[in-house]
Amino acid sequence: MNVPANLKYTKEHEWIRLDGEVAFVGITDYAQSELGEIVFVEVETVGETLSEGEVFGTVEAVKTVSDLYLPIDGKILEFNGELEDAPELVNDDPYGKGWMVKIEVSDAAQLNPLLSAAEYEALIG
Question: What is the pTM of this model?
Answer without folding.
Answer: 0.96
